[in-house]
Amino acid sequence: MKQLSSGELRQMFLDFFHEKGHQIVPSASLIPRDDPTLLWINSGVATMKKYFDGSVVPENPRMTSSQKSIRTNDIENVGKTARHQTLFEMLGNFSVGDYFKAEAIPWAYELLTSERWFGWDPKRLFVTYYPKDQETKALWEKTGVSADHLIPIKDNFWDIGQGPSGPDSEIFYDRGPAYDQLDPDDPENYPGGENERYLEVWNIVFSQFNHTADDHYEPLPRKNIDTGMGLERVLSIFQDAPTNFETDLFMPIIKKTAALSDQRFYGKNQQDDVAFKVIADHIRTITFAISDGALPANEGRGYVIRRLLRRATVNGRQLGIKSAFLYQLVPVVGQIMQQHYPDVLRQSEYIQGLIRSEEERFNATLTDGLNLLDQVINAAKSQNHTEISGDQAFKLYDTYGFPLELTTEYASDHGLQVDAAGFNAEMEQQRTRARKARSDQGSMKVQRDLLLEIKQPSEYVGYQQLTVKAAKPVAIIADEAIVSQSTGAGTTCEVVFDQTPFYAEMGGQVADIGKIYTQAGTEVAEVVDVQHAPNGQNLHTVRIKEPLQTDQTYRLEVDRAYHRGVERNHTATHLLDQALRTVLGNHTQQAGSLVKPEYLRFDFTHAKAVTQRELAQVERLVNQQIFASLPVETVVTSQAEGRKMGAIALFDDKYGDQVRVVKAGDFSVEFCGGDHVQNTSQIGLFKITNETGIGAGIRRIEALTSQPAFEYLNEQDRQLHKVAAAVKAPVVGQTFDRVSELQQQIKSLESKQESLEAQLAQQAVHQLFSQPETINGRTLIAGSLADTNMNQLRVLADQWRDQHLSDVLVLGATTGDKANLLVAVAANQVQAGLKAGDLIRAIAPQIDGGGGGRPNLAQAGGKNPAGMPQALAAARQWLTEVSTD
């Protein structure tokens, strides 16, 4: 057996298929682009969907990649099984309507068995196939796989519902008797069963049918190949590792974690080993996710990162690590993956800073979780329960990252069990909710063959001119048919011209609009949208006034005012992008944009809100470039030369061999296929109107340029004059001083009001404190106060304690639709076993609330002020029933 490193294995796979004519496609970002059906890129084929569904025609129909992917549907199994990871690399080769089974099967066998490549013993290979797919079986036999190593399995059919589907073959490697943990006659002891001996290494999908809405399987006109080979599990074979974790992808992380732990070492203790594996897996996922622009948050991708970080932190506690440590593992991850993913090391300092900040915040949360667990345990014991409920254990898991095992261990120390069945039921409900939230719609569409058939080229000339005098329709599409003449007035159809000045929507820039005229000057159609057809042509959606014909030529005119507005705003987004990097740091990445004639919108990655001072700096910096009248130049060159020029690539997978580099002086250099002004002075003015968060670590800036910016500032000026008049400022420039003066007056009046309210409250309190009652041998002061908040109740509780007025104090406060309760218990009564938290939990439901606290002081809030009398009555009843022992 060859000894290959992870880098050597990855490169060998790519080199093999490159020799077979495949284009090596770089690993795409983990954050899906233009695919709302996915939270993360979860497979190699996920990045190829645009080619398989026909929306884009690839430069080369043969492609190969090593794609980083994230799956978290089985997160609880990480560390407990040999091959569960949340981050993994999927090696794959893909054919889009090119080769099929006759090529894919022999190539797979060659890669696996040839001494030049993997060099595996053919006797160790077993292959499963779909029973009805006898063609595949015959091809495997012809290639060299013996009949007794071919296994028919009825589940070998890839199908996600409507869309492409087909049979598949799974290839297994026999690791030998040493890995055979099952009895020979065990029904799972076969390639494809649940066992450790036969390791699945490759899945080859033969996509040859379209699963229709009426549940039929029709042959696809273009058959496709989609394969997936897990790098981590194949590497475990080459490195003779019992699990994926004992490979060079994980062991350096595990060793570094051991060095940070409390004298814990991998391989000494099974429970510790699980913790080591969880940490190694999770830090890889966290590091790569942040490197690709995701940030910790309470929803979406950010929640996944936060959840993984919390699980890793909790497992670190199990290894005796009580302070932030995960951030120290980031450079280790970067060094392991440097060959294929150099960006991780380059961003190491930024990633470390984010993770450390998140860790330190969670350490305080973790303490809160442990406190909650103590409360749960104490409550169970006080009520003579023998177990912790499943929903409580799940809350600890879901909110604080406590694995069920950790809760079970803590509970066991106190003689309690955990309702594991209830926990699993809660977990399944969460999975069900997640499955319902994920939509298969749009996950893989069938190719629109009509557009694929249009091969005639269409030249975009809008960079140089906005009018084409004689453009000929090369294809007119009406009612999903290619016709020689369009439908009549009032209808809509699609048209491809041999040349066009109309920009097709791309990269955030909206499509051009305009008119189509006959050579005689008669308007025949209005262009309302332009998109890219699969073969790269600009596909115009037009509203017909008079029929268009393919044997005529037409004058195409772009709406110039509309187009110039788009140009100004597009160039402004480039200036804004660079200004954000300058002010906030190079970690900011564009996460989307919208360039329209009337305004621009720019989304970018950043961990927190941009301050007003930072926004002012950004705005000033952009306007400086506008006022400097920088020339805006476009250079067509290769990607490599563009990068040497310092061009920023926004979305790597959108660029071909030849790229357009747009330069605004020496300030901004970006790859871009859009339209721009010739000089920044044409933008006129730039004004930010809004900055807000739109998702996990994603911020959005909206801005105006030129006349819209001027009109916006004029409106702001009019509003300022109105305010000046309202506050009676002598001149507009003194508006702020006048507002400040009025605020001081209001503050003084409010202070006087609070003083009067406090005097009245003190009188009410004096009366309340002077009337203790005795219940079941204890003295109680109970009552409620109107227009009083919780802070005031705590002050009163301090007065009560200092004066030793009673054994128990119960105070209520109501303000509007809110109600508050406070319970205080004297020290001697706490020693006797009376707890304020027990009492507050008994009475809080009366105000539709809940709460807790320390034995001597507890509080609760609710939304039912009308229930306050019942709450006080419940307190008296509770004291009547509580033991006086």
TrEMBL record:
The gene is alaS. SMART domains: tRNA_SAD. Its cofactor is Zn(2+). This is Alanine--tRNA ligase. Consists of three domains; the N-terminal catalytic domain, the editing domain and the C-terminal C-Ala domain. The editing domain removes incorrectly charged amino acids, while the C-Ala domain, along with tRNA(Ala), serves as a bridge to cooperatively bring together the editing and aminoacylation centers thus stimulating deacylation of misacylated tRNAs. It is an enzyme of class 6 (ligase). Residues 4-715 form the Alanyl-transfer RNA synthetases family profile domain. It comes from the Bacteria. One of its GO terms (cellular component) is cytosol. Binds 1 zinc ion per subunit.
